[in-house]
Design a protein that fits this description.
The complex is a heterodimer of chains A (about 120) and B (about 120). Chain A is mostly beta strands. Chain A contains no helices and 11 strands. In chain A, strands 2, 4, 5, 6, 9, 10 and 11 form a 7-stranded mixed beta sheet that branches. Chain B is mostly beta strands and about 120 residues long. Chain B is about 0% helix and about 60% strand. The termini of chain B are far apart. Classes of the chains: A mainly beta (about 120), B mainly beta (about 120).
């Protein structure tokens, strides 16, 4: 199947700083990528849908000024957590949709563990 | 709004048992349904994908069925092994509307298979 990478795999930062997480589709082009957040023992919650060359669509309750999404190329989307606070500590997972496949399937990255001190 | 429920939330069994994990969803207008595996601290691995027109899919010891009209899917794991220990997530993809393509996830079933 298609491969999606995330970088970094984990990050620890101080409160008030900004953190950028990258999501890359390695062997396919992805016009649409998705960013999810997962708390311990909880399911994945969709934060936003990232479309190449246009503004991201945010889910209700997600602050777009706090979670900046940029999808500047067909293989890269970035999520920047601005002015991070301890409550932003979570596991962030991205996925990318492969339109070349028979089912337009989403493939998931390995996740990024963010800890804000 | 689509809601996905998975039962049981946790399951602990001895090696060799055959298992059934359940998933239900409230809106039957789905495009497809997927079962994923998630190991602790890791991303998601797709196990099986069932299109809305299909009734079941099989891969090795895994078999997933779909009854779209009743909003149910089951994941059957045959002859379970300790390596099957993980969280199993069910997700449905919408079949209509502007949010076509987004996945709705259940909370998962945490499976432990002990030797």
């Amino acid at each position: 199947g298609a491969v999606v990478s995330q970088h970094p795999s984990w990050v620890i930062c101080k409160s008030g700083t900004s953190v950028k997480i990258e999501c890359r589709s390695l062997d396919f082009q992805a016009t649409t990528m998705f960013w999810y957040r997962q708390f311990p023992k909880q399911s994945l919650m969709l934060m936003a849908t990232s479309n190449e060359g246009s503004k991201a669509t945010y889910e209700q309750g997600v602050e777009k000024d706090k979670f900046l999404i940029n999808h500047a190329s067909l293989t890269l989307s970035t999520l920047t957590v601005t002015s991070a606070h301890p409550e932003d500590s979570s596991f962030y997972i991205c996925s990318a949709r492969d339109l070349s496949g028979p089912y337009n399937e989403q493939f998931f990255g390995p996740g990024t563990r963010l800890t804000v001190l | 709004k689509q809601e996905v429920t998975q039962i049981p939330a946790a399951l602990s069994v001895p090696e060799g048992e055959n298992l059934v994990l359940n998933c239900s969803f409230t809106d039957s207008a789905i495009y497809n349904l997927q079962w994923f595996r998630q190991d602790p601290g890791k991303g998601l691995t797709s196990l099986l994908l069932i299109q809305s027109s299909q009734r079941e899919q099989t891969s090795g010891r895994l078999n997933a069925s779909l009854d779209k009209s009743s909003g149910r899917s089951t994941l059957y794991i045959a002859a379970s092994q300790p390596g099957d220990s993980a969280t199993y997530l069910c997700a449905v993809r919408r079949g209509r509307g502007s949010t076509l393509g987004r996945l709705y996830f259940g909370r998962g079933t945490q499976l432990t298979v002990w030797p």
